[in-house]
Amino acid sequence: MSKLGPALATGNTVVVKPAEQTPLTALYVASLVKEVGFPPGVVNVVPGYGHTAGAALSEHMDVNKIAFTGSTQVGKLIQKAAGNSNMKRISLETGGKSPLIIFDDADIDAAVATAHMSVFANSGQMCVAASRLFVQESIYDKFVEKSVEMAKNRVQLLGDPFAEKTQQGPQIDDNQMQRILKYIDIGRKEGAKLLAGGHRWGTEGAFVEPTVFADVTDDMTIAKEEIFGPVQSILKFKTLDEVIERANNTTYGL
Question: Last residue of a domain, which of 74, 93, 112?
Answer without folding.
Answer: 93
